Amino acid sequence: MDFSQRLERVSADPQALTQIGRGLEREALRITPQGKLSTQPHPAGLGSALTNQWVTTDFAESLLEFITPVSRNVDDLLSQLSDIHKFSYTQMGEEMLWPMSMPCYVGDESDIQLAQYGQSNIGQMKTLYREGLKRRYGSVMQIISGVHFNFSFPDAFWQQLFGEQTEQERQTSVSDAYFALIRNYYRFGWLIPYLFGASPALCGSFLKQDTDHLNFSKTGSGTYFLPQSTALRLSDLGYTNHAQSALKIGFNSLSQYLDGLQKAIHTPSEEFAEIGVKVDGELRQLNTNVLQIENELYAPIRPKRVALSGEKPSEALCRGGVEYIEVRSLDVNPFSPVGVTETQVRFLDLFLTWAVLSPSDNMDDAELACWRDNWKKVVLHGRDPDLQLQIGCQGERLSLHDWALRVFTELEQVAVAMDQAHGGDAYQQTLATLTGWVENPELTLSAQVLREIEAHEGIRNFGMALADKHAQWLNEQAYRRYSQAEFEQETQASVARQEKIEQSDELSFEAFLADYFADLDVNAFSKA
Question: What is the pTM of this model?
Answer without folding.
Answer: 0.95
